[in-house]
């Protein structure tokens, strides 16, 4: 009895269920990394509202990962008719399709509205197939199904590859950021959902008629004149397949024509004249001129002066490449060219120096010219200004009239300064000048066309004096071989130092209507349809 009385009750020595539960809860609360899910927050403390931040971060990870995936593996190389292309999906706010035809420019189509844009880069044109299509346009009908099939196969492969790229990129970046497989899979799933939504939006807004109204940029801004009226084409073919084939074919034509530069194909009835001026000791000009002579099949080069900068004998060696340019070189003296320069040029092969109204026949053209009366680098002589230029122009006009009376009319007159060139109005169809380092074209009162060229040397040694480098300019003139009248001209402009840009613009020549002047002196106003004279360009 005494032993039993000394033993404590069992309920006091063995842990009760309530005590065991409290111990376990205390351990959970004290274990790092565990959150008391079943425990209510303390009174007066609200949970921190951070779910929207986590969602925003996940969305950012998905977008960046999907973009990286598309950038790395989200493109497909596929042939489309005569072209080898690369198709790529890019993030975009407006969607659409962009066809890049390097180096000519791009065509943009409003094909769909979605946060992704289809980029098609034309990498290469098959020259054999392109030439066949240009020469035999009837093959377009057979090209329609081929191009449509190529586009369908390419876009299908691109869609599959894009899905893999987007999901893989988002998942990989999610795993790198969160280091949790569950979060990474959530990022991949969200990326797939966004891509699916984009596909649905593109399908719902798909506009097959967008190929009828492409937007052109770069050199392709001249494409509408080559492509023609797409709305008239649609009456002959279906809306999408046929227009796509025609668009590809016309881009092929434009690429073939522009990448080789000549605006006209070699034609026995067309003469090509290259007008250059104000080279000012820029050695790069010779390479540019030689390239233009070869690519445009130039018949004769006319230089309207200021080839040199100081006219010293030490500069004469700069002129030696003229003999190897591949075409006859007709030259008049500028105000930076000395008599020493002129005599040196007289001794070069393939060079014709004009002065004091002298005329020569070169490549079937009768050309006359006079050198500038002033040599401005010589500071010991006071420049006489425009009056001296006008007197030179008057003497040149008199020589042109003498040629007319002798039965050997002149087709083209050349003077360095436009002030002198203007005095030949009515005595010759075309007069060329330079000096002012900018282009200017004008039909004078009595029907003579005045063409002033910019600096083919980009200003030469003065190129770095201005705020921006001066552009390199030259023009190709097309003349009818029978009438010797100008039909059109191409203005070629290069982007100054570095030659980072190039532009070729076409102009058609209006045939001037000379104003009748019985007294032989300028009077009255130009006839209807004749452009009014512009103010004299300042020297």
UniProtKB/TrEMBL annotation:
Superkingdom assignment: Bacteria
UniProt keyword terms in alphabetical order: Hydrolase, Membrane, Metal-binding, Transmembrane, Transmembrane helix
Stretches that traverse the bilayer: 55-74, 158-178, 185-206
Stored InterPro entries: Calcineurin-like_PHP, Metallo-depent_PP-like, Metallophosphoesterase_sf
Statement: the UniProt record of this protein carries the keyword Transmembrane helix: yes
Domain (Calcineurin-like phosphoesterase): residue spans on this chain: 271-438
Region (Disordered): 502-539
Pfam families: Metallophos
Amino acid composition bias (Pro residues), ranges on this chain: 514-539
Classification via PANTHER family: PHOSPHODIESTERASE YAEI, TRANSMEMBRANE PROTEIN WITH METALLOPHOSPHOESTERASE DOMAIN-RELATED
Protein's recorded name: Metallophosphoesterase
Organism: Streptomyces peucetius
Lineage: Bacteria, Bacillati, Actinomycetota, Actinomycetes, Kitasatosporales
């Amino acid at each position: 009895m005494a032993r039993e009385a000394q033993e404590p009750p069992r309920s006091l020595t063995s842990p009760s269920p309530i005590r065991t539960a409290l111990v376990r809860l205390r351990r959970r609360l004290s274990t790092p990394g565990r959150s008391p899910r079943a425990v209510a927050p303390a009174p007066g403390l609200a949970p921190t509202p951070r779910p929207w931040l986590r969602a925003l971060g996940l969305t950012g990870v998905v977008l960046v990962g999907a973009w990286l995936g598309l950038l790395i593996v989200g493109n497909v190389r596929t042939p489309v008719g005569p072209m080898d292309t690369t198709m790529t999906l890019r993030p975009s706010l407006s969607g659409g399709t962009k066809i890049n035809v390097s180096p000519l420019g791009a065509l943009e189509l409003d094909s769909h509205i979605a946060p992704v844009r289809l980029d098609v880069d034309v990498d290469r044109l098959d020259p054999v197939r392109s030439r066949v299509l240009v020469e035999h346009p009837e093959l377009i009908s057979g090209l329609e199904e081929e191009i449509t099939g190529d586009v369908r196969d390419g876009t299908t492969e691109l869609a599959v590859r894009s899905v893999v790229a987007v999901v893989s990129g988002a998942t990989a970046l999610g795993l790198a950021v969160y280091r949790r497989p569950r979060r990474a899979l959530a990022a991949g799933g969200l990326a797939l959902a966004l891509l699916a939504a984009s596909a649905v939006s593109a399908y719902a807004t798909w506009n097959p008629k967008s190929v009828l109204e492409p937007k052109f940029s770069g050199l392709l801004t001249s494409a509408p004149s080559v492509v023609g009226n797409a709305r008239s084409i649609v009456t002959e073919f279906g809306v999408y397949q046929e227009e796509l084939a025609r668009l590809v074919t016309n881009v092929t034509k434009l690429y073939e024509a522009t990448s080789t530069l000549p605006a006209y194909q070699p034609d026995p009835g067309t003469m090509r004249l290259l007008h250059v001026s104000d080279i000012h000791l820029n050695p790069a000009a010779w390479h540019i001129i030689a390239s233009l002579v070869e690519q445009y099949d130039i018949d004769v080069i006319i230089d309207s002066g200021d080839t040199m900068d100081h006219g010293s004998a030490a500069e004469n060696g700069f002129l030696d490449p003229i003999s190897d340019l591949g075409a006859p070189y007709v030259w008049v003296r500028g105000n930076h060219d000395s008599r020493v320069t002129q005599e040196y040029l007289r001794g070069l092969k393939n060079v014709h120096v004009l002065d004091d109204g002298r005329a020569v026949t070169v490549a079937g053209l009768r050309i006359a010219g006079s050198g500038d009366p002033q040599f401005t680098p010589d500071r010991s002589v006071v420049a006489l200004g425009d009056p001296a230029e006008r007197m030179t122009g008057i003497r040149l006009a008199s020589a042109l009239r003498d040629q007319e009376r002798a039965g050997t009319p002149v087709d083209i007159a050349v003077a360095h300064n436009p002030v002198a060139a203007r005095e030949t109005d009515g005595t010759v169809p075309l007069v060329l000048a330079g000096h002012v380092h900018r282009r200017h074209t004008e039909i004078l009162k009595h029907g003579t066309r005045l063409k002033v060229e910019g600096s083919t040397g980009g200003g030469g040694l003065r190129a770095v004096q201005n705020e921006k480098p001066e552009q390199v300019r030259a023009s190709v003139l097309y003349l009818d071989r029978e009438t010797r009248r100008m039909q059109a001209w191409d203005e070629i402009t290069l982007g100054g130092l570095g030659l980072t840009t190039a532009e070729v613009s076409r102009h058609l020549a209006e045939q001037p209507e000379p104003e009748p002047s019985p007294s032989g002196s300028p009077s009255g106003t130009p006839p209807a349809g004749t452009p009014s004279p512009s103010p004299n360009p300042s020297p």
